[in-house]
Each structure stands twice: as structure tokens, then as C-alpha cells.
# Entry
Amino acid sequence: MLDDRLRAYGLLTVMPLFFSSNMVIGRAAVTAVEPWTLAFLRWVLAFVILLPFALSGLQSNRAVLLRHRVLLGIMGFLGMWLCGAGVYFALRHTTATNGTLIYTSSPVLILALEWAFRGRHINLRESIGIVLAIAGVTMIVVKGSWAVLTNLAFNVGDLIFAVAALSWAVYSVLLKRREFSAVPTLSLFAALALAGAVTLMPFAAVEIAVTGRFPVTIPAWTSITGIAVVASVLAFSCFQYGVKVVGPATTGLFMYLLPPYGVMMAVIFLGEDLELYHFAGFILIMTGLVLATAPKTLLARLGIG
# Structure
């Protein structure tokens, strides 16, 4: 049991690196692979990798999955189309640093959506956290400049990331629906990967026909494989193992490492610059995230009511 917990903590420490790698590898990959094609191949490959482990659960829950195929399609669109191809398109216009920090706001957006559509009670601490996180996202989108806000001179990539963060929040809320409660986690993930690939397929086909570009080089396929294996299968598997061994609350705390890991990799591997507004946005987002989502026991230890 102790070995399992030590293994879980070790995997959870590197898990945010796996998730963050999508931004960094994606930023490099979009120079060689078109966005819709990259997202489509990512989720096809992820599905193929998952299939041997998920096949039994897919077969035994076939009726449930087919009955809710429209919902699966919507979730595939939100989680893999908007948060896949949309993110890769955005990375052609903005930095991985901006994308990582903006995307970090998803957990507080989930709280806001559950309050708006499920009647979830939001206390004062959580409300302050939501406001601070959104203020941090705004700080990054406007690059700390009042002129950008007043002139509406926004970077289209930053705006797409803001939409993607909201899309991921909606996807996460839908993931909690009772319809899929009996479906094994890996099987549901495989079904969603397939649904995402199906929603992406026509766009990828048109993109390939119009641009005449399909990845054929070793670097391009290395990027695609890296995103599918590291940012998809490994990241998700580590997350699920953590939930199983140490519980969702502890596992969720390790997600707070996403911004520093993601920004660190963007600076080291992509040579991106850090500006003052990045630090200001990071502080606002992380403060809001901790206030809105951290367990009460952790906040009590930190002296926060």
C-alpha cells in the first residue's frame, strides 16, 4: 500500500508536465501540421492506443454508449474539436505561455457553470476566487494594457484560448452526468477520443484537400505521436491512477502545478519571453484557483477561512 502511494505521488508530480506538453509540442507542431489534421490524428492515435485496454468495457457498455451517442458527440466537439483543433489554431497566433495561463482558469469556470445551471451554492470565498481568476485571464488577454481593452485590439489566439477554457469547463460538467457513471474510465475516455476524431474528420479532410498538406516527415509524426501518447494517454492515465490511490482531492492539488510547469517549458523549449503582465495574471489566476477550488482542510492549514 505504501509503495502504491509513493508510486502515485511520483506519477502525480510529472502528470502536470504531461498535460502541459500539449501546449509546447502543439506550438512547435502547428508550423508543420495543419490544426484540424493535427487534432484529428492525435485523437485517432490516442483511440488506437487505448482500444486494447478499453475494448472489454466498450463492448459491455455498448448499449449505453449508443443510446447517448449524441451527448458523446457534443462532448467530443467540446473536448477534442474546440479544445483540440481550436487550441492548435490559437497557438499559431499566441504563445504557449499565454495559452497555459488562460487555460488554467477552467476549474473556476466549472464552478460558475455549476452555479448557473445546477444551482450549486457558491460561498464568498469561492466567489472571490472566481472573480480573481477571471481578472487574471483578462490581464493576460489585454497584455496588461488599458489601451488594448479600450481599443478592442485583442489577440485572436488569446480569445480562442478563453473560449477553449470555457469549452473545457462545459465538457467537464457534462462528464459528471449520471448516464456514464457505470462506464469504466478508460472505456469512456476511448469512446470520447473516437467521438472527437469523428467530429474532426470532415474538417481535417477539407483542410488536407484545400492545403494539400499531410504530415509525412519524421519530425511532424514525432510531434503527433508525442501529443497522443504524452499529453493524452499518459497524462490521463496518471490522473486516473492518482484518483484511485490517493483520492480526487489530493490528485486535484497537483493540477496547480500546470501553470508553472507549462510556462517553464515554454520558456526553456520555445524561448518565449515572460512579461510583467504574465506574472500579474499568474498571481491573480493562481490565487483565485486556490480560493475557489482548494479543499477546506488545506485552506485551514494556510490560515485562510
Summary: The mean pLDDT is 86. The chain has 15 helices and no strands. Residues 2-301 form one domain.
